[in-house]
Amino acid sequence: MIEVRHVAGGIVTGRFTDHHVHLQLVDHRLLAGSRLGRVVDLGAEPGWVREVAVHNSGDLHAARAEMTVSGLDTSQPPELWPPIVEYAGAFLTAPGGYPSDRAWAPAGSVREVTDAADAAAAVSSLAASGASCIKAVLHSEAGPVLDDDVFSAIVEAAASHDLPVVVHAEGVGQAQRAARLGADLLAHAPFSERLSDDEVAEQAASVQWISTLAIHDSRHRSIAVDNVRRFAAAGGTVLYGTDMGNGAGPVDLRTDELDALREAGIDGIRLLQALAPSGPEALFLPDGDPAAARPLTPADLEA
């Protein structure tokens, strides 16, 4: 349930959530003062991202929230707070699998998993580091992928720690394979192939999709938008995410991602749900439009 307040000329709400970022690939300090109040990092060196998350989250935000309720907060206003950071830690992939061979992948951000026992150990290590989810990779167009037994071991171990499994699924058949083997979320709305209506319905019943539509070239964007349109119509949950750090893009709300979501038929309350606003009221949305969101001012509440 999202929390919004209708006022003259628009909506007041908390800052938004980007469900797919890579903070080691951007200047994450720019997020303070952005329209994002929460981000989910889906691939970083665990120690590095934990330090960023502890700095941005936890007791600091709890204390600020308490002071705000008490009317005693004399620190920065909510729209200038750094965002709460949740994270997966390292990518879990097959030996030699994506993105182990990518120059952009920071040292320690990829863990190659050899067998079921290694998978369980990797998940336990990430859970101990404070991960809020587990990121696994099934990218058949870029090298070896985790086999069914190892992937299932990741899912089982993650469940034992109450952690959802987010999957980078790329290549024909990989999105369906991820869903069949128990994934909770896809890190990207499927873009390698047009899923059949039956496949979309199966996905909608079990898996959430993180959008990341704006990162693609025109062909893959068209495939992804079509899949998302039918997935949403089938009752599937779509979450706003940009893959921040993948190419050029703002360290903030990404309006071309909103445009793509609207093209896929996600607008109004569904678009707000995808953005998952949370925290204290910090944004004013003129005419209820997230793309026009700006910091809330006293004048917005006086109209």
Molecular structure report:
This protein starts with a strand and ends with a helix. It has 303 residues and is an alpha/beta fold. Strand 12 (278-286) and strand 13 (294-295) form a beta hairpin. It has one domain: Alpha-Beta Barrel (TIM Barrel). The strands form 2 sheets. It has a 7-stranded parallel β-sheet with strand order 6-5-7-8-9-10-11. Strands 1, 2, 3, 4, 12 and 13 form a 6-stranded mixed β-sheet that branches. Residues 58-74 have low confidence and may be disordered. It is 34% helix and 20% strand.
How much of the polypeptide forms β-strand, as a percent range?
15-25%
Shape: globular
List the strand order in the largest sheet.
Answer: 6-5-7-8-9-10-11
Describe the biggest sheet?
7 strands, parallel
CATH topology: TIM Barrel
SSE-based structural type: alpha/beta
Low-confidence stretches: 58-74
Distance between the termini: 26 Å
Number of strands: 13
The H/E string reads EEEHHEEEHEHEHEHEHEHHEEH
Task: Let me know the average pLDDT.
Answer: 91
According to CATH, the homologous superfamily is Metal-dependent hydrolases
The CATH architecture term is Alpha-Beta Barrel
Rg from C-alpha positions?
A: 19 Å
